[in-house]
Design goal:
Rossmann fold; binds the ligand O=C1O[C@H](COP(=O)(O)O)[C@@H](O)[C@H](O)[C@H]1O; three-stranded antiparallel beta sheet; seven-stranded mixed beta sheet; about 270 residues; 12 strands
Length: about 270
């Protein structure tokens, strides 16, 4: 059996795996299937990565069969969030993805759309939005049917123990940003404090969103998201992860059993 427990509800489809290897195998299969379907449909797979634990959980993509069967040349790679540090810094989400994944598969270097690491957070966010706008104009990235937002084929998110996704933190004013596609922070509660991030309208316009969460320290956050508890924000009652709600796409949660440990058996049988 691919996963030990599954449930569909208004928060999407939730898959719980016994161990990190099981999760990684199934995450690779899910991504490979979406890549194939997107390339068949419009010739490109536009995928936005996050940082953190997600990246090592994508490790199976570098192995057989995916290293050979995935159409890597059609991938266009973006970041849902990035820390404003040099690309060689150990805090860089780009560096993490490059070291663990992108250096091991035949992606086209010009299809790796990393942020400008030589400018301020504000300029980096503006530059990144400009790059994305050009790629929407040429339809390398699809466009939402509902408004003018980019419609990435897949946005991959992790979730912090505080419920943050990308660099959207509980109670932060960036959660309310509805005009920009990419915004910046200089006061992120988790260091490094300077970051850029996709805004919620962009995340929620994606065709597919996967939130990948592992570890006991995330169990309380997962419970709050799934069972509807409110966040710690002073002007925003919901945890950022609860605000991920695709307008017309699909939302999938990949959890390990530790992260799901506060969701009891009855919750899955509802
Ligand atoms: O700071 C960040 O944290 C989140 C969660 O990271 P994790 O290691 O707890 O999984 C990550 O998704 C985000 O991209 C990153 O910038």
């Amino acid at each position: 059996m691919a996963f030990s427990r599954v449930r569909h509800n208004d928060r999407g489809e939730l898959r719980v795996y016994d161990g990190s290897d099981d999760l990684a195998i199934n995450l690779a299969e899910y991504i490979a299937e979406l890549s194939e379907a997107s390339v068949r449909d419009h010739g490109v797979f536009s995928v936005a990565l996050s940082g953190g634990s997600l990246i090592s959980l994508m490790r199976k993509l570098c192995e057989a069969p995916y290293n050979m069967t995935v159409d890597w040349a059609r991938w266009h790679i973006f970041w849902a969030d990035e820390r404003v540090v040099s690309k060689s810094h150990s805090d860089s989400n780009y560096k993490l993805a490059k070291d663990v994944l992108l250096s091991k598969v035949p992606v086209v270097p010009s299809h790796i759309h990393s942020i400008n690491d030589t400018v301020s957070a504000e300029e980096a966010a503006n530059d990144y939005e400009f790059v994305i706008r050009q790629l929407v104009r040429t339809r390398t990235i699809c466009v939402s049917d509902i408004h003018d937002c980019p419609k990435f084929d897949l946005i991959l998110l992790g979730m912090g123990s505080d419920g943050h996704v990308a660099s959207l933190f509980p109670g932060h004013e960036s959660l309310g940003e509805s005009n920009e596609w990419v915004t910046f922070l200089t006061d992120a509660p988790k260091p490094p404090h300077e970051r850029i991030t996709f805004t919620l309208p962009v995340i929620n316009s994606a065709s597919n969103i996967a939130i990948v969460v592992t570890g006991q320290n995330k169990a309380r956050g997962v419970q709050m998201v799934m069972m509807g508890g409110s966040g710690t924000g002073y002007n925003c009652p919901a945890l950022p992860a609860q605000m991920v709600s695709p307008t017309s796409g699909n939302l999938m949660w990949f959890l390990d059993s530790s992260a799901a440990s506060k969701l009891d058996g009855t919750w899955f049988s509802k």
